[in-house]
TrEMBL record:
<feature type="region of interest" description="Disordered">
    <location>
        <begin position="1"/>
        <end position="102"/>
    </location>
</feature>
<keyword id="KW-0274">FAD</keyword>
<protein>
    <submittedName>
        <fullName>FAD-dependent oxidoreductase</fullName>
    </submittedName>
</protein>
<keyword id="KW-0285">Flavoprotein</keyword>
<dbReference type="InterPro" id="IPR050315">
    <property type="entry name" value="FAD-oxidoreductase_2"/>
</dbReference>
<feature type="compositionally biased region" description="Basic and acidic residues">
    <location>
        <begin position="49"/>
        <end position="59"/>
    </location>
</feature>
<dbReference type="InterPro" id="IPR027477">
    <property type="entry name" value="Succ_DH/fumarate_Rdtase_cat_sf"/>
</dbReference>
<feature type="domain" description="FAD-dependent oxidoreductase 2 FAD-binding">
    <location>
        <begin position="109"/>
        <end position="545"/>
    </location>
</feature>
<dbReference type="InterPro" id="IPR036188">
    <property type="entry name" value="FAD/NAD-bd_sf"/>
</dbReference>
<dbReference type="Pfam" id="PF00890">
    <property type="entry name" value="FAD_binding_2"/>
</dbReference>
<dbReference type="InterPro" id="IPR003953">
    <property type="entry name" value="FAD-dep_OxRdtase_2_FAD-bd"/>
</dbReference>
<keyword id="KW-0560">Oxidoreductase</keyword>
<feature type="compositionally biased region" description="Basic and acidic residues">
    <location>
        <begin position="7"/>
        <end position="16"/>
    </location>
</feature>
<dbReference type="GO" id="GO:0008202">
    <property type="term" value="P:steroid metabolic process"/>
</dbReference>
<dbReference type="GO" id="GO:0033765">
    <property type="term" value="F:steroid dehydrogenase activity, acting on the CH-CH group of donors"/>
</dbReference>
Length: 573
């Protein structure tokens, strides 16, 4: 899911406010049930709780980068630099250190690889039905991408919609997704997700999930739905996690769930083609074997593996904003058992952010506003050839994203002059004019020159074409714009001239394991691999959103599919 941390270039008003205290949801002040391991090791399970490294039998402490009073948007987009400062390097992946244990060769009803959005829900519902559940995750805490994701949800036919007089249905939700994606989704999987999304959402509400007062809305970040069915929590992904932890911990306290953190599933065991268990690797490098009647891969995406990202998506992993454990290892497991990966050709980038440098993956420095409904554009956008390629005020973010996807290296340059710089609304919301201008000549993505030709040479844009494009744009101000742009308040005419390079990117995993509508991993002939299932971002956004971004169609299906598997689809008697 996760996040997927999809680049939160445009966040709702509540996510941009400063000085919000971190509430921490269900993580604050809770006792941590500890699982004894021979030799003195014990495990803390709550998300946000970690061990102090380098000790055996150590105390559990409050962990993670979030402290009281931290800016919420900083928590949601880690590694983003402050204005005028370079961003810190991306986090190094944790080396596993064993956080729990289970008896070697113990038989489990359900083994879940991954303790993120989908895995937590699956384990909870399976344990409620009496299953003996093993959950293993290489991270030091549960929750996966929910610690950093925006937590977008969508569901049709909910109680909140009814209370606001909003008429909606799963059929309308499906129709919207087919419209936005232009029919490029797996319709069977999407139907399964949307027909059961409302029940998942009601379950979340029953667990204390908080929704912003003005929600649901039609859209935020992505192409809007035709009906308000889009939900955010005040703490973004952490609002979801706060609702998932109590029921998970309740089942764990009853003994139905055994949790192994800092422990990775590294192999699947098979007999006559059927998956019969897993091999896990512990912190010390040793391995254990576990037998399971059902094995579910919920290991998340692959965006922290640049080589895999390029191989599957066909583009560079430009941005370093991914969950460090999103390495795609679950894809290897599924393929090793007979499954296959599909959907990478549906990759779509966002309309972009300014990166801190060209050593990719690179941290995000800033996110210029490009939503016309928030700020109408005064500038023009050009590609490396020095040509405009889209109406800058096109109200469809999907059209603008697809237009950028077709440009060399997914790049665009924002070009403007001195008068626009001083008279237009802020281009970067958090930056006053002095901060913006201070980056020109001092940062590799910001360029300034007295002529357009020189600006092109400095910025890496075709100089003569850039000058011609600006001249043609200015000449058309008294008539129709050739690309259909309507908001054209000023010509680009008064030096000095400015150019900012913006990088299209996405930290959503597009490709994923192929599954059927019973969430069984299937081979290329469509036959299921016995006893092997997959949920969450390991399925890839391509199956659930196609070649577009459909709001809430990663986190909601991850939880919905986990609920369906745990509550009714899996059998173990």
């Amino acid at each position: 899911m996760a996040v997927h941390l999809q680049p939160a270039e445009r966040r709702p008003e509540h996510l941009a406010r400063l000085g919000r205290a971190h509430r921490g949801g269900a993580e604050q002040g809770r006792r941590v049930r500890r699982v004894h391991r021979p030799g003195g090791q014990e495990a803390g399970a709550l998300g946000g709780l970690e061990r102090k490294p380098g000790h055996r039998g150590e105390q559990v402490r409050q962990g993670g980068p979030d402290q009281a009073g931290a800016r919420l948007h900083d928590r949601l987009t880690p590694r983003v630099a402050r204005p005028g400062r370079s961003a810190p390097p991306p986090p190094k992946p944790h080396q596993p250190s064993h956080e729990g244990t289970a008896s070697v060769n113990k038989a489990w009803d359900v083994i879940v690889a991954g303790a993120g959005t989908g895995g937590l829900v699956l384990a909870t519902f399976a344990a409620r039905r009496g299953a003996r559940v093993l959950v293993a995750d290489p991270a030091p805490r549960v929750g996966g991408t929910l610690h950093i994701a925006t937590g977008q949800l969508s569901a049709a036919g909910t109680r909140l919609q009814a209370e606001r007089g909003i008429e909606d249905s799963p059929e309308a939700h499906l129709a919207d997704i087919l419209r936005i994606s232009k029919g490029t989704v797996d319709e069977g999987l999407v139907r399964l997700a949307v027909e059961n999304a409302a029940d998942t959402f009601e379950w979340l509400l029953g667990n204390g999930y908080e929704v912003l007062p003005d929600h649901p809305v039609q859209g935020q970040n992505h192409e809007p739905y035709s009906t308000p069915r889009y939900y955010w929590g005040p703490e973004a992904g952490r609002s979801i996690l706060a609702a998932l932890l109590p029921p998970f911990e309740a089942e764990r306290a009853k003994g139905g769930i055994t949790l192994l953190l800092e422990t990775e599933v590294v192999a699947l065991r098979q007999e006559d083609g059927a998956v019969t268990g897993v091999t896990v690797r512990l912190a010390d490098g040793s391995t254990e074997e576990h037998t399971g009647r059902n094995v579910v891969l919920a290991t998340g995406g692959y965006n922290s593996d640049p080589e895999r990202f390029r191989k599957l998506n066909g583009v560079t992993a430009y941005a370093a904003a991914s969950y460090p454990y999103a390495r795609g290892r679950g894809l290897d497991l599924g393929v090793s058992a007979g499954g296959y990966v599909r959907g990478g050709e549906k990759y779509l980038c966002s309309f972009g952010s300014v990166l801190d440098h060209d050593d990719h993956p690179a941290p995000v420095l800033c996110r210029p506003v490009h939503w016309p409904e928030m700020r109408q554009p005064w500038e023009i956008y050009v590609n490396a050839h020095g040509e405009r390629f889209v109406a800058e005020d096109d109200p469809s973010v999907d059209r603008r994203e697809h237009a950028l996807r077709a440009q060399p290296e997914l790049r665009r340059w924002i070009v403007f002059d001195d008068r626009i710089a001083r008279e237009a609304p802020r281009l970067v919301p958090d930056w006053p004019l002095e901060t913006l201008l201070g980056h020109f000549g001092t940062h590799p993505m910001f360029h300034r020159a007295d002529t357009l030709e020189e600006l092109g040479r400095l910025a890496g844009v075709h100089p003569e074409n850039l000058a011609r494009t600006v001249a043609e744009y200015n000449a058309a101000l008294g008539g129709d714009d050739p690309l259909g742009r309507t908001h054209r308040p000023l010509p680009v005419a008064e030096p000095p001239f400015y150019a900012i390079r913006v990088q299209g990117m996405s930290i959503t995993s597009t490709a994923g394991l192929a599954v059927d509508t019973r969430l069984r991993v299937v081979d290329r002939a469509g036959d299921p691999v016995p006893n092997l299932y997959a949920i969450g971002e390991i399925l890839g956004s391509g199956q659930l959103m196609g070649d577009s971004f459909c709001g809430g169609m990663l986190a909601t299906p991850a939880m919905t599919f986990g609920r369906l598997l745990g509550d009714r689809m899996l059998t173990w008697t």
